[in-house]
Amino acid sequence: VRAFEPAAVELGTSVGYETESSKDLLRATVLVSDLLIMFPAVFLALRAIYPHAGPRRRAWGLAVALLHPGFVLIDHGHFQYNCISLGLVAGAVAAIWRGRDLLGSCLYVLALNHKHMSAYYALAFFAHLLGAALRLPTWRSSATKVSALGAAVVLTFALAWLPFLGDRDLALAVLRRLVPIRRGVFEDYVSNFWCVTHVAIKWKKLLSDQQLAKCCALVTAAACAPSVAHQLLRPSRRGLLLAALNCSLGFYLFSFQVHEKSILLPCLPAALLSLEYPWACLHFAIVSAFSMIPLLQKDGLELACAACVVIFISAASAGGEVLGPRRP
Predict the structure, then answer these.
(1) What is the DSSP letter of 16?
(2) Is 327 helix (H, G, I), strand (E, B) or coil?
């Protein structure tokens, strides 16, 4: 972006900067990110997860994932780059599914450093990889695998944070920015537990932000605990996807400072499960788009939302042999 329009990213003066050329440039960068990361990562993930699926079934799953209304609206309308972190997570799933746990760990850490909301998946990845390592035949092989995974994670984190490690104050400022306690338990009209129940129970008046943060942490941990325990005790590749879905939903519903667009995180594992649970995944995609309407209204994207949902339903309807009879 700096090479084409430096004023758009100038430190301290680019806040509120908007021109037609800058918007076109941002749209182009999102498209390039999709083409280079999101599209191939989802394709590889579906190919790894469903190796025996026919080309038509896999093409349907790819269309359902890439035409997801939430992914399209937030990245191309709200101007976010969630496709990069979501694509890296999809790549991590594909790598782990192929037995390349070290590569999967590195890709997930890159996703986490690109957007810290990817922490919604952290418990699922941690529990699966640790559980799989502990099930190796000897304690020596388990210790070696855990050490290798730890080294890969630490090295990837170190490379990502290298520009900030030379200045302690700068590194702490970045960390404080990543944990915005002062912004409150929720913003605007996010469709999670705290916002919905705030109508009857004024959480922000009853508890301080610090107390709410601790309460959120406990409730979120309880919501994620069953999936984490399952992956620690009986790890499986399919279980990793289900755990990622359950844990990200747990974080979305109960964690501190949740944004409307955070629903995209559960949407990724749900989309990757579309060939196994097609009806549930389609319904979830439409409901998740509806949950972001307050955010989309701010950007004037109501018509775009309706159009994306219609296109999504049309593409999904083309997969009659995948959907089959609707389950009661």
Answers:
(1) T
(2) coil
